[in-house]
Structures are given as C-alpha cells and as structure tokens.
Amino acid sequence: MKYCSQCGGPVVQRIPDGDNRLRYVCESCHTIHYQNPRIVAGCLPVWGEQVLLCRRAIDPRKGYWTLPAGFMENGETMEQAATRETLEEACARVRNLSLYTLFDLPHISQVYTFFRAELVDLDFAAGEESLEVRLFHERDIPWSELAFPTVGRTLECYFADRAGQVFPVRNEPLAPLLAYYKKA
User: Fold this and answer.
1) Coiled-coil stretches, from where to where (predicted)?
2) Distance of alpha carbon 173 from alpha carbon 168, whole angstroms
C-alpha cells in the first residue's frame, strides 16, 4: 500500500499508539489502514453417497478439483457466501447447510469454512469458474488432483465421519501449501 484510500496521501508503516503491530498509516489524514484475513466460504455438496466437485477453470490451480468455494462478499453471512459460491461455480442449489470445517491459514491470511449441504436436485453444471462438475463416490475421488489442502482435509474428515454419521465441527490450522504438496 502506497496511498491512503481516504485522502490519497502517502502512507507509512508504523505501530499506532495503543496498538502492537505495524499498520499502514496515512501521513496526511492519520487514517489507520487495517489489513485483516480474508474469509473463504464453501460447501461440501452431498447427493446420497456422492459428493460434488468442480474442476477449476481459473488460477490458482487451474484444472484441479475443488469443492465450490470463494471469498465472502461484504454484507453476506458465511452461509450465504457458501450458497452463492456453490450456485456460481456448480450451478447447484443446496439446502440444510451445517458448518463442518474451519481452517486457519495464517501464512496466507485466510480462513476457510466449509458447510456440509444437501444438493436440492441433480440440475447442476459448470459455472464460469469451472471446467466441469461431477459427483464422486469416495473410491473415485481424484485425491492427487485436488486443488487445495483445505479440500482434501474436508473430504478426509467427511468420509471418516460418515461411517458413524457424526459430523463434528472441526477447526484446524493448516500448513503452507508447499508443505502439503511435498507430501503428496
């Protein structure tokens, strides 16, 4: 950040009075510009024994499989964001959303949330950000072609929890992507 979004003046990094972190502060109007983590919300859409995955048509990880998810917009709840992203990426309608996984990714200043959800019907298709959308049984999941660790971990938890039909809300920190992909 070089300029203030309030007045256009130059900004500097310093620790404001009463704070304990470096912040961008406008030298002209003294506005403090806080930069906070971004929230990604998505769904684990389920139809019977299958889950719905999207093959990404955009970077990052273009061509890899993911759960429908994306950044929250101002003015919406996490559930609304997850529902909207599922409709945008998979043209799929979901119901009975239940918070399922919450992942902290401090290394990229993001928080991921996934809701378990039921597909309303089988009327789904690839949205603009997807190359293809398909239902998968557990045995057919393309594990080595998953786009993000958050997706793989959510699916691992789901298939493990499905056996006992108990789906606790899980909150975990995840390692940087490079560490994840070096394991695979």
Assistant:
1) none
2) 16
The amino acid present at 168, given as its one-letter code, is P
Q: By three-state DSSP, how is residue 163 classified?
A: helix
Q: What is the dihedral of CA 59, 63, 65, 71, to 10 degrees?
A: 20
Predicted structure pTM score: 0.86
DSSP 24: E
Contact in structure between 5 and 33 (CB atoms under 8 Å): yes
Beta-carbon count within 10 A of 162 CB: 15
Both structure tokens of 32: 């403090």
β pairing state of 65-66 and 170-173:
unpaired
What pLDDT digit, counting tens, does each position of 47-77 carry? 999 999 999 999 999 999 999 999 999 999 9
Query: Phi/psi at 140 (nearest 5 deg)?
Result: -105, 0
